[in-house]
Amino acid sequence: MPAPCPCINYPFIKNFRRYFTINLLTNSFFGAWLLSTPIFFDYFGLHNALLNTILVFFGLHLLIRANSFFFNGFFLALIWFWWIGLSFRYYDLHVLVPFIPFIIAAIYGVIFALFGQLSRFLPKPLVQAAILFTISYIHPFGFNWLIPEAMLTTTLFGVDKLHFLALLGALLLPHKTLKALLLIAALLWTKPYKPLAPLNIELVTTHVPQDKKWQSSYRQTLLERNFAAIQRAIEHKKDMVVLPESAFAFFLNREPQILLRLLELSHKITIVTGALSLERDRVYNAAFVFHDGAYIILKKVVLVPFGEEIPLPKPIADWINDIFFDGASDYAKAKMPQTYTIDNISFTNAICYEATHPIIYHTTTPYIIALSNNAWFLPSYEPNLQNLIIKYYATIYKKVVYHATNIAKTEILR
Prior knowledge:
Layout: H1 11-43, H2 49-65, H3 69-81, H4 100-115, H5 124-134, H6 161-172, H7 176-187, E1 201-203, H8 210-213, H9 219-235, E2 240-242, E3 248-251, H10 256-265, E4 270-279, E5 282-291, E6 294-299, H11 314-324, E7 339-342, E8 345-351, E9 367-373, H12 382-396, E10 400-406, E11 411-413
Parallel strand pairs: 1-2, 2-4, 3-4, 8-9, 9-10
Antiparallel strand pairs: 4-5, 5-6, 7-8, 10-11
């Protein structure tokens, strides 16, 4: 039998192996995976609140007990956001696709590590819990999707910050009685009742690949499918039909013949659809609402970081647009969330990413019409994560969200 390698007896090697195996993999890695299981289960159509409750609970436990702040943030971001790199396929930047996930993960790792410096003065588990509690307020480059408590929407726990604080407290405190009381407090909540809008709304799911969507040769197919979906909704006696983001993949306000046809149909049914709008040489990602022979244009408020705008000073943003995006300009945007009223029922407009931003939920309307195009990030579980975040905000702000998508799960979230 060969003698063991003498190098493993060196303290440095032994400590390194112990640190890597126990702290990085067992705690940070598996903690991030367990906390993320609601995303995976939703992707496969599995919905078990009790199982999600157990897995999320132990995921948070491992993350709080991890020794590495950096790898907590790194693994969470890598698991949640690896799909962001897929969008670069459509900018002829395939070479960047495998690197983007690790860059994003490293950014979050650094954020966690910086906050981890507080462990010089406070117990490490307390600092880890504090980071998990506050990370939803930290938006690098305006991106706000790392919300650990969003996973609670699939569990028996309450989803707001107070219930999340009680859950973290139950994981932190050594006193068994206090631990039990806080755990019970985290479980004691009643989901608010939110009635659906008193309109018969048809949500349309389209199936348009991203590499075909903007091709002129595909335009006629796009039109035929869109008008067929509207006609079916009319035949089914729906009050409103909702098509996804950029369902009409061109400047709809510059297409008088198509506008006329939509206006004629709007006497039979209200039509909400995504399209581009061109005004004074400014491009808007917008929703068009056609009702009783008239229409309005509702412009997007919150743009996708590095997708619709470069969230950096203008000289740097212009340089990035020139180098990576063929000199394209950022989209223009509205200043405030936009609402509209159909048959005395008020709705807030939301387009894709902004449906996951709290500013949209601060309006007084009880209903949100959200339009998304998820083809940029498929195949992945990005649509499932998006829906969980939408459901989180819908629960917190007591809203009902009607979500129509392209190549993703169309559903009502509340």
